[in-house]
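HOLO CASE FILE
Compound: 1-deoxynojirimycin
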Amino acid sequence: MSRYNSPTWYKDAVFYELYVRAFKDGNGDGHGDFKGLLSKLDYLQQLGVDCIWLLPVFPSPLVDDGYDVSDYRNIHEDYGTLEDFKAVVDAIHQRGMTVIIDIVVNHTSDQHPWFIESRSSKQSPLRDWYVWSETDQKYREARIIFLDTESSNWTYDPLTGEYYWHRFYSQQPDLNYDNPAVQQEMLDIIDFWLEMGVDGFRVDAVPYLFEREGTNCENLPETHAYVRRMRAHVEAKWPGRILLAEANQWPEDVRAYFGTEDAPEFHMAFHFPIMPRLYLALKQRTRKSIVDIMNRTPPIPSDAQWCVFLRNHDELTLEMVTEEERQYMWEHYAPEPRMRLNLGIRRRLAPLLDNDQRRIRLLNALLFTLPGSPILYYGDEIGMGDDIWRDDRNGVRTPMQWDYSKNAGFSDADELYEAVIDDEVFGYRHLNVIQQQADPNSLWYAIRHMLAVRRNYRAFGRGTFEFVLPENEAILGYWREVDGTEDVPGEHERFLVLANLTDEPQPGELDLSAFAGSEPIDVLTGTRWPAIGAEPYRFELAPYGYHWLRIR
Ligand code: NOJ
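Model generated. C-alpha cells follow.
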C-alpha cells in the first residue's frame, strides 16, 4: 500500500475529473483514449493533482456517455484495451498519483446481455435482474430526474407486455437490488477493477438502488444496508481503496451515506448543496447562503471526507436549492432557455463567471480551502468555454485545448467525437494550455500555485472548520485548524481564510485579540499583514480578493 501516504490519503488529495474521450487522442481516430492519456500524465503531475477520477470507461452504446454500461469487465473499444488501461493505472501510480473510476451500479444499458436476456421472456433466468411490472402505476412518488426527455420512470416493453423501471434514460434499465445475485455480481465487478489496481470508485447514482411502495424510492434503508456491505467487502479485501458517493441530496441525507464509525458506508461523498451557493453568494453579494448551508451540514465520522467541486460533466445541478434560489440562479446564470437543462445549467465555470478572472480565481480559492477534498473538472484549470447549442451535456464535454494547432492539439483526425470550441472568447486559437503555460499571470499558473501552496499544509484537507464573520456580509471568513495526529504527524496549523464576494473594496473588522502579537502571513503571496493587537483588527479586501492567512 506504499502509494498511500496514510490510511486516509484521500483527505489530502486534490482530485481531477477526467473524461478520457475528451482528453487526448493517441491513435488519431478523433476520440480520446488511454494512449493519449498516458502521454498527458506528466501534465497532470505538473499541475499538482493527486487523484484522477475517470468517467465511465466500459463498453457502452453511449446513450448516456458511458453511464449506460453494456459490459462491466472490459474497456470501451474507443479507449483501448484492458492492457492499455492497466498501463495507464501503473503509470499513474509510478508518478505517485492515484486513480478512481466511475462505477455505474444502479442501472445498465438496455444493450447489456443481462437486459437482453431479461427482457426475452417472463421465464428468463435473468428476468428478476431488473425491475419489471404489469403496470406503470407503481412507485408513483419517485420523481423523474431527466425531466427534459423522460415522461415516466416506466417503459413498456412490447416483447413481454410488461414495463421496466428506470430512473434515467429509458435505455438505462435499473438493476433489481432485491435480487441477491445482482448484489453479489456488483461486488465481483468491484473486485475485478480493484484487481486491476484502481484505488477506488466514484459510485454513480447511489440513492436509487431499491424501490419501495409509498416512498420516493431514494435513500432507503435497504440501500444503506447494501452500501455497508460494499464497504465491508472493500475494507476486508482492499484496505486503502476508497468509495466516493454520488448522492445528489441535502446534507443530512448525504451524511447518512458516511454511516457510523462502527458501520461505515462511503469514505467520501460530494457536497452537492454547497456548490450552487458559491455562485449564488457572488451574485447576491453576501455570504449568507454559504453560511446557511455549512451550518446545516452535520459533522461526519473521523475517516470520512467531503468532496467539493465547482463544476463537473453534468449540468450545474439546482436540485439542492429552494425553488426561489433555483429561479434566481436561472435568471442570473442561465438567462437564455438553451442554457438550462433539466433542473440545471449546462455551462462551464469560466462562461458562468463571464470569464472574469477575479471571480474564477476567487471561487477556486474557496474550493481549495473549504472542508473536504477539491475536485477540478478537466479544462477548468485553463478556463475552457462551452457551447450551449450542442445536445444534452455535450457542450461541456468538448476536447481539451492543448495548443494552437489543428483540433487544439487534441487529435490529428479530420472528424472528432465533438468539435473543439472555436469561438472568439474561449476558442482554442487563443485559449489553450501552451499559451497559459507561457504566461506567468495565467489562470493555469494561479491554480497550480494554489495547489502547490495547499500541499504544504494539512489544515485544508483535515482541519476543523469554523466561520468567523465580520459585520460586513460581503466578506466570507473561516478558520481552518489542525493538530498533528498519530497517523498524520505535524505541527499545529491555523488559517484564517478571508474572501470578498463583491466587485468593490470591502472593509472588515474582527476581534482577533486572542492572537495578539501575531503577524498574519498570506501564504499565497508571502505578504505579512500588520500585527494583531488587543483592539479590533481592521482590514480592507480588494474586489473579489481572497487571502489564506496563517496565524501562529
Ligand atoms: C450521474 C452522472 O453524473 C450522469 O452523467 C449520468 O447521466 C447519471 N448519473 C446516470 O448514470
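CASE NOTES: The first strand starts at residue 15 and ends at 18. The radius of gyration is 24 Å.
CLOSED: yes
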